[in-house]
Amino acid sequence: MAAHRAQWKGFIKFGEVACGVALYTAASTSDRITFNTINKATGNRVNRIFIDSETEKPVPREEQTKGFEVENGQYIIIDPEEVAATIPESNKTLEIEAFIPCPDVDDIYFDKPYYLAPDKMGGDAFAALRDGMKKSNVVAIARTVLFRRVRSVLIRPHGKGLIATTLNYDYEVRSSAKAFEEMPKMKITGEMLDLAKHIIATKKGEFDPATFDDRYEAALAELVKAKIEGKALPKRKEIKVSKPNDLLAALRESAGMLKAADKPMRTAATANPGSTREKARRASSSKDRTAAAPHRKAS
């Protein structure tokens, strides 16, 4: 992990054992293509200015503060110092509260993953925790202050280290009952169920994230590359809509097509956004960038 900067450093404690640990970002969007907002007339970048909603005059940063809307258009002022005072003090300790079976945690509560690695000293204690969890087939629930908020964290073994996933609070997770309340009660049986099971069996495979391609990112990269090189812009392919409106007929057709094709589930990604972005970079290095060219976020 030496090439990455730790997002947080502290201690992990289980029982009376504690060791130094560091959190590293496990997933990042910094490689995505982003765009600036440009003035069409001048080609210059546009800056954001905050405007008073009533006077329509610009408000300097030093005159801006926080507010909570109590009624329509009525606010109570909250000073930044008051907000800072509500942030709980951090003792920099991931305090493990319980070890539980992993299936006990619904993944709808998963927020953001981090790699958890030993920080300098304490490697033996870290390894003892990791291997003990593996042997016991459990995960850990811990609590600490992360990024100015008290967070519950799910900790599980992963390779030579651990993964710490911050968890959503119960009030942040919306009820599934409300999402599905308008769904009619129905039970599929007979040929329709058999065909569905056949299609599922034919399409069984393994989870391999390397085969997933971000088609939107790849399309953006191709668009940027075409603009830089002055070529014709790529055209959107038309989507062919399935003709059968009858579900059973569509299932029969799908089952027949799969049987005739007999193709394996896993295939290599048809587009690689990373390599396409490299092509865009190489193209841009040979020509002057225009003011409308996208930039990369800082890591």
From TrEMBL:
NCBIfam families linked to this entry: Ku_bact
Similarity comment: family membership: Belongs to the prokaryotic Ku family.
Source domain of life: Bacteria
GO molecular function, one term: double-stranded DNA binding
Quaternary structure note: Homodimer. Interacts with LigD.
Region (Disordered): 259-299
Species the sequence originates in: Rhizobium tibeticum
Protein name: Non-homologous end joining protein Ku
Purpose of the protein: With LigD forms a non-homologous end joining (NHEJ) DNA repair enzyme, which repairs dsDNA breaks with reduced fidelity. Binds linear dsDNA with 5'- and 3'- overhangs but not closed circular dsDNA nor ssDNA. Recruits and stimulates the ligase activity of LigD.
Annotated SUPFAM superfamilies: SPOC domain-like
Keywords: DNA damage, DNA recombination, DNA repair, DNA-binding
Cited SMART domains: Ku78
DNA-binding is among the record's keywords: yes
GO biological process, one term: DNA recombination
